Amino acid sequence: MEIVRETKYNRAEELKSFDETKAGVKGLVDSGVEKIPRIFHLPKEHSTNANEANFDIPVIDLGQGVDQKESVEKIRDASEKYGFFQVVNHGIPVCVLEEMLCGIRRFNELDTEAKKLYYTRDVTRKFVYNSNFDLYSVPAANWRDTFFSYMAPNPPKPEELPASCRDIQIDYSRHVLSLGFRLFGLLSEALGLESSRLFEMGCTDGLTFLGHYYPACPQPELTLGASKHTDDGFLTVLLQDQIGGLQVFLDNMWIDIPPVHGALVINIGDLLQLISNDKFKSVEHRVLANRKGPRMSVACFFSTSMMPSSKIYGPIKELLSKDNPPKYRETTVEEYVTYSFTKGLDGVSPLLHFKI
């Protein structure tokens, strides 16, 4: 009788081997892999199952002719209850959204040797492409490749971006910055503040662009496209394609956020929860892996991220009282995001580290 011996699993070596291919998850798919490598396997206590729910994340119309007070009320309600909402008639043409997703596809479907030129873990580079920014620090890698750039306040020169996505990345980011000014005005009013308050605090000073590419997965029940996490900026503007897979954790259930054509998903980030002293909620979310694919999305974080910054943020004084004292210590965006980046998507909110 033949004896089958199980090959000893050396996680560190397998991570290094995967990383050194510089081909990402797409490289695995292109090689014809039918079983996903063990480095992507979720711990047994984690589940990819979703729950049926009887409510939808609000879709808010920002079009002309819509009563602004009504929009502010809806945004306040969504930001307090769900931490997520979708917006339509937001001012970014559908053709721009579609071309942005095409740009994500074009870059990721370049010849592997061409993409390798951009593969790096040096986050000071103007254009960073890799698979799993936290590859070496989390229990399970995600079935996802990503590129990112800081698009404000000091964007890359056009020639520092790949030709495959250069023009649309610049154009889309310009549109998102414009939308951000509008959203922060509405959010300021939703907090009972002057409409310019969050802008004056610097919430729109930085924009970080992440283009995600989730290849089709042969065993989606064993892994995730993105592990449970919260976003560490002030606000996130998310463009997703029509495949779906984004889920938010509410009332101890995972709730699907189905794609709405032409809509953008908006979610409150940790720093906005911190400065609002928990009035607005930064809610955990994740992305499922899928046999269908590739899925593409673009997440734009309003934050100066890990760029050097001495500006101090803490709970906004006007929101505090004897009955509502500050719940968080003061910090800088650089300190907060560096802490979040270093710990990776480990399922624990970075906010806990800053609680008083």
Describe this structure in words.
It is built from 9 helices and 12 strands. It is α+β, with helices and mostly antiparallel strands and 356 residues long. An 8-stranded mixed beta sheet has the order 1-2-10-7-12-5-4-3. The protein has a 4-stranded antiparallel beta sheet with strand order 6-11-8-9, with no helix packed on it. β8 and β9 form a beta hairpin. α3 crosses α6 and α4 packs across α6. It starts with 10 loop residues before the first helix and ends in a 13-residue tail after the last helix.
Please give a quick description of this structure.
By secondary structure, this protein is α+β, with helices and mostly antiparallel strands. It has helices at residues 11-21, 24-30, 68-81, 94-108, 112-116, 166-190, 197-201, 270-275, 333-343, and strands spanning 59-61, 84-88, 128-130, 145-152, 207-214, 224-229, 235-240, 246-250, 253-256, 264-268, 285-288, 295-302.
Write the layout of secondary structure elements.
Layout: H1 11-21, H2 24-30, E1 59-61, H3 68-81, E2 84-88, H4 94-108, H5 112-116, E3 128-130, E4 145-152, H6 166-190, H7 197-201, E5 207-214, E6 224-229, E7 235-240, E8 246-250, E9 253-256, E10 264-268, H8 270-275, E11 285-288, E12 295-302, H9 333-343
Parallel strand pairs: 1-2
Antiparallel strand pairs: 2-10, 3-4, 4-5, 5-12, 6-11, 7-10, 7-12, 8-9, 8-11
